[in-house]
Amino acid sequence: MSRQTMEAEGVVPSAANAPVAGATVHVWDLLVRVFHWTVVTGCVLNLFILDDGELPHEVVGYAVAVALSIRVVWGFIGTRHARFADFIPTPKRLASYMSELVKGREPRTLGHNPAGALMMLALMVLLAGVCVTGWMMGLDAFWGEEWVEELHGLVANSILVLALLHAAAALFESWRHSENLVWSMVTGRKRA
Q1: DSSP letters spanning 143-157
Q2: Which intervals hold domain Cytochrome b561 bacterial/Ni-hydrogenase (predicted)?
Q3: Range 116-155 burial, b when 16+ CB lie within 10 A, else e
Q4: Of 39, 66, 115, 144, which is most buried with the most CB atoms under 10 A?
Q5: Mean pLDDT in residue range 3-20
């Protein structure tokens, strides 16, 4: 992969062209970080703390729905690494990345790596699903419909499983590339 191709895809070149030790670059803008932590907080509250069907559970659900709606719009008009066009991988790019990952040679990326991008998209689709089914449960047309409640619960549990996988992958990538990815989602900055 040429340096120009690597830079265009947000892959960080190694060794000879490495930046000065300790240098950081701004990657995650404030809106992306607020969205991330709003979703984390909302999911923890609604899955483990708040009672299903109660007003606080619904308010948190609507807050997540609003955050998701804003994030989707931001995916088209936002900063470089927030845009879907920056991180949605082609099948070829995903296959190449996964091949390198299996060999333990995956490149470090500034934005989302191809696998992380797929995880983010899957989580966003599931968030939309849990928001829609939660909203449907409050409508007269679906009031008391068991299948809607079951689907809502299934999607919520799927979010939990994928979120745990996402967290594990972030910790693994932090270790592999000697970079605290969780902290970068707080500060917005990553190692240059």
Answers
A1: TT-HHHHHHHHHHHH
A2: 27-188
A3: bbbbbbebbebbbbbbebbbbbeeeeeeeeeebbebbeeb
A4: 39
A5: 52
**Residue labelled with tokens 């594990």:** 168
* Class of residue 168 by CB neighbours under 10 A (exposed 0-12, middle 13-18, buried 19+): exposed
H runs (alpha helix) in the chain? 3-8, 30-44, 55-77, 84-87, 91-102, 114-137, 146-176, 181-187
Q: What share of the chain is helix, strand, coil (3-state, %, to 5)?
A: 70, 5, 25
Chain Cα centroid distance, residue 12: 20
Note if the pTM is more than 0.70: yes
**Two tokens at 75?**
């995916």
> Of 10-14, 91-95, 130-134, where does mean pLDDT reach its minimum?
10-14
